[in-house]
C-alpha cells in the first residue's frame, strides 16, 4: 500500500507540476522571470504553446512529439510561406517521397498578414485536433485548441478546403489535410498507434524491485523493465507493467533534411532497420573480457561512481556559474578519446567556463552550491518530468524563452533587417522542428539497430557475475565489474551488508544513491548516499519509471540537445544566449520530486546554447540513464543533424534549390583522416586502404547540403592538405577523387 500511495502522490504532483509548467510557458514567470502579455505574442507562438501543453497532457513519447512539433511547425510555415514573395513552402505544392500535396495557387489578398494568421490558425487547429484525438486527456486538449481558435476570432465549424475563392481559412484546412494524409504514410505507423511492427526483445524483463539481474541473457542488448506500476515522464499511470520498446523502427520515418543517400539499411531477423549517420557499435562486453570489454566496464562503472555525487551533505561545493562550468574544448568531444571528457571520480567535464560575459563585458558572478544539489536538480530538470513536454518540446520552451528576451534582435543569422514577430517565430519553429524530427529519426534508428543495454541492467548484470579487477581474489569473473576503492568494492565478512549469516560476502557493493526505497515521503525525506549492495542499485529516478522504455545507444537527450543548440546558434547568429546568459531557478525544498530538495536555491545558468546542451548530456549520467558511450556519439550526431536541418530550412526561407555535389558512380576507396576534429588552417592527414594509382588527386570539401566550399589538388604520395583558414567551424564531407575512384570522410572543423 505504501508503494501505491507514492504512485498516487507522484501522479497528483505530476498534474500540479504540469499546470505550473503551463503557467510558466504562457506567462514565463516560473521558468525564466520574463513577462509578456499574450496579446503581444504571434499567432504561431500561441499555437506552439497550445501544442506544448497538449504534449504535457499526452503520453511521454519523444519520437512522436518531435514529429508533432515538426509537422505543426511545417504546416504553419507553409501557411505563412504561400503569402511570401521569396520563401518556398515545404509540403504545399510539392512531392515528398511518394506523397504529393497539389496546389493550384491562391490570389494574393490585400491584407497578407491577416490572411497568414487565419491560414496558420486553421492549419494548426485541424492538425492538432487530429493528432491528439487519442490522447489520454484528449477532451481537454481539443477544448483548448477550440478555445484558442475562437479567441483569435475564427469559427471552428468552418471545414471547407476549397481555397479557390481565396479563402485563407479553407487554405489552412487544406494544408492540414495534406499534412494529416502525409503523416499516415510517412513510416511512423500512426494509424497503428505508432506501435512496433517487428522488434522483439531478446532478454526477459528485469524486475528492479527484486535484487540483481538473474534474467539477463545478453549483456549487450536492451532489457525491458517489469514494474508494479508504470508512470511515464508525463505523469500518466499506464496499463500493463512491462512497457515495450518505444519506436525501434523509427529510423524508417520520412525525415526533413536527411537524404536517402545517407541512409543505410541493416537487417536483423529478416526486418530492415534504417540507420542515418551510423556511429558504429558501442563498447561490447565478452565473457572472456576481451575486445571492447574494458571500455564497456569503464563506461557503466562511471555511472555507478557518479551516483555517489547525489548527496548534498558530502561537503563538496561547486561553482556552477558560467564562469566555472561550460566552454568545453570542442577538440575533446570525440569518440576516439571519450575518457578525456568525463572526470571519473570528481564528476563533470573539463570545461573551463567563460572568463567574461561577452555581452555584458563583465565576469560571471560565482554561484557556489553543494554538488549534490546541483546534480540532483540537473537530473530532474533535463529529464523533463513529470510535467514533460519531452526533450524536443523542452527545446521549444527554451526557444520561446530566447524569443522573449529584450536583448534579442530578430535578425536571421544575426544579420540584415529585423523580422516581425510572426516571421521570426515561423522560421525558428520550422528550423528547430525539422532538427528535432530528424534527431528522433537518427537517434532511434541507431537505438533500434544496436538495441543497447541500459545502466541498471548492465551494472546489476556485471555485479551478479562478480569482480573483474583481481583474478586472485574471490568472486572473480572476466566479464564482471571493475573495483574502485571507496566506490565499488567486494563485501567482506563483518561488513554491515554481509547479512546475518554472511550470505552476501563476496558480492559487490556501491557507494551510491540509496534508491527510492529509502524515500517514503518525497516531500520530507532524502535517500542520501551510502553503501548498498550493487544488486539493489537504482538510477536517480522514480521507482515507477526507473529508465525510459527504449535502448540506450545513442542518447536521445544528447542528440536532441546538440541539434537544437546548433540550430539556435545558427538562427540567431550568436552562440551565446541573449544577454550572455540564460537561467532557471530551482527553489529550495520545492523543485525536486524524487526526494526532498534541493537544500539551497540552485540557479542553473548557461552562457551558450552548447553549454546548455552539454549540461543536459551530463545530467543523464548523473540520473543513471546513460553511460558516456551513449552520450558522446549522440552529441556528434546531433551536431550533424542540426546543421543539416538548418541548412535546408534556410534554403526554404530564401527559395534556393537544394542539390548534391557528390558523385556516386565511382569505385569506393576507404580512407582515414586525422586529426579529426580538425582546426581550420592546420594540416589534415589521410591514409588509404590501398596504394593510390595517381601521383596527384583532387580533394574537395562540401558543406552539409552538398555545396562545394573548397577544393585543391594533393600529392598522392604525401596525402596531406593544409586547410584554408576561412573554412568555418562545422561538419564537412571531404571527397578525394582519382580518375575512377573516390573516397569520402566526414570532417569536423572547430574554431
Draw up the topology in text:
Blueprint: H1 2-27, H2 43-56, H3 62-81, E1 95-96, E2 99-100, H4 112-131, H5 138-151, H6 168-183, E3 230-231, E4 237-238, E5 263-268, E6 271-276, H7 293-306, E7 317-319, E8 368-370, H8 371-383, H9 390-404, H10 421-450, H11 455-465, E9 488-490, E10 508-513, E11 529-533, H12 556-572, E12 582-586, E13 602-606, H13 609-622, H14 628-654, E14 667-668, E15 671-674, E16 678-679, E17 683-688, E18 696-702, E19 708-715, E20 720-722, E21 730-737, E22 741-750
Parallel strand pairs: 14-22, 16-22
Antiparallel strand pairs: 1-2, 3-4, 5-6, 7-8, 9-10, 10-11, 12-13, 15-17, 17-20, 18-19, 18-21, 21-22
Helix pairs in contact: 1-2, 2-3, 2-4, 2-5, 2-9, 2-10, 3-4, 3-6, 3-9, 3-10, 4-5, 4-6, 7-11, 8-13, 9-10, 9-12, 10-12, 10-14, 12-13, 12-14, 13-14
Helical coverage, percent range: 25-40%
Number of E strands: 22
CATH class of the domain at 667-750: Mainly Beta
How would a crystallographer describe the biggest sheet?
6 strands, mixed
Determine the structural class based on helices, strands and strand pairing: alpha+beta
- What percent strand? 5-15%
How would you describe this structure to a colleague?
This protein is α+β, with helices and mostly antiparallel strands. Among the domains are: 82 residues, no CATH class; 84 residues, Immunoglobulins (Immunoglobulin-like). It is 33% helix and 13% strand. A hairpin with a 5-residue loop joins strand 3 and strand 4. Helix 7 crosses helix 11. The N terminus is likely disordered.
